[in-house]
Amino acid sequence: MLEHIDWLGIGALIHLALAIGVVLRVLQSQRNASVAIAWLAILFALPFIGILLYLLLGETTLGRKYQSRNQQIRALLGAVDFAHADTPLPSAYQGVSRIGTAWTGFHAFYADKARLIDTPDDIFDALIDDINNANTMILMEFYIIHAKGRVLEVLTALENAAQRGVECHILADGVGSVEFFQKHAKTLANTGIYVHESLPVGLFKTLFKRVDLRNHRKIVAIDDKVGYTGSFNLVDPRYFKQDKGFGQWIDMMMRLEDHRTNGVIAALSAIVATDIGAENDKNLTVLTERFHDYTKKLYRLGEIGADGKLTGTPSKTVPIMRIASSLPAVRDVVVQPIPSAPQMTAHVIHSTLVSVIHRANQSVWITTPYFVPDDALLSALTCAAKRGVEVVLIVPKVVDSFLVRHASYAFFEELIEAGVVIAQFGDGLLHTKSVVIDEEYCLFGTVNMDMRSFYLNMEFSLAIYTKPLVMQVLGCQKAYFERADVVGLATWQSRSWGQKLLDNSIRLFGALL
Q1: Of 146, 184, 218, 225, which residue is the catalytic one?
Q2: Beta partners for residue 436, in sequence order
Q3: Is 307 among the residues known to form the active site?
Q4: For the chain, is the Cβ count within 10 Å smaller at the N or the C terminus?
Q5: Which CATH homologous superfamily contains domain 337-512?
Q6: What are the pLDDT digits (tens) for 352-379?
Q7: How many CA atoms lie within 13 Å of 70's alpha carbon, on the beta-carbon side?
Q8: Do domains 64-85+94-293 and 337-512 have the same CATH topology?
């Protein structure tokens, strides 16, 4: 009798039943139409595999326990009286500032000084000097830590700081920094540095939370007086991915200095401490105790480690590209921290970005390594260009993701036809993420112009309201532009039919990239 059973037909019926169930789930849970359509295409294009992919990657959940711990910490921080700026913001940006405040709790802050740093060596020099002068606490949070080159000097400075009694904490993403945890974390832990793994992955964990949601933040806070953020991972570009053929990664960091109690640096500390405390119950308990016992100072939170030693040699020597020499510090600036995370801050940065582009009157300048917009962002950019706003998009000529590269290409023709100027930077992988509006407002930080940054990853942006500092960022953007090639409409339209088909096919799944 078994030889008469139509196993293929039974398999098809099982797949159809499962697929219908998942389709109903997609329609119920996916609010973004582009995301829903992309998943529906995958479900029926890849029998069974598509269902498995959706179960593993389809919904943005960090896990119920993680969310619960995060909410408890945010409730504690709600009692902190942060020293927000008391000067009204420009009327054009008061509304967009309220978007950030509504979802993150952070208003705009004063900072005594802000310095834009545009080269790796200057970043390393400043960071090492600040670590060497630290007295009480160092909190560092990075997506990637690559322990080679000058990064070793940073880690040595942290070891020395820990030995003289400074509490030092490193939080690194479990996927982005997997080699760091495998080879170096235990050595650092043995010197007194507290090393924490953000969003660790594992087979069992995939059953309860989506493992491709990553902590993409880059934040340093020292003594509640000095802070850093930007696109720069803790890597030496001369040693990082030099075998991939993309050249050195080009980044910028912002160094903030402020001496107010519970000022902007305390806010950065709170963000890192929240991320550490949310990782496990032990960290949450210790953070809660110290919150009450030490008048809301955020200190020792836990530990984690793995075997390894600090070694490394460069794959090749490449000269560092300097964009702007010795940018001066700007005093008395107003900035607003905007941390984002799935399920916890809605789509705060996406909403902020689309809002400021729609209200732009003169110019919109954007630098981003990854550009895969959704309909709302695409509409904002094209509408701005059509109403006469100067819209300039600067992207790398080649990026390290095949899918993102071709999905991005599929949008170029529509943007150029609308009047957007697209320039491809060829002197390395341009990794800086910055947006400048009308030469008076800036978003600066870790956020790429793609759906992963807007909807999936934990990210951080700094809104800047002080024009001299905004103009420094714009100056760096224009320096990138001078080294880039503008994409011509005729040239882009002359690409082969096969190239266009590939780009447009991958674009269908852009909402998932």
Answers
A1: 218
A2: 365, 442
A3: no
A4: N
A5: Endonuclease Chain A (3.30.870.10)
A6: 999 999 999 999 999 999 999 988 999 9
A7: 21
A8: yes
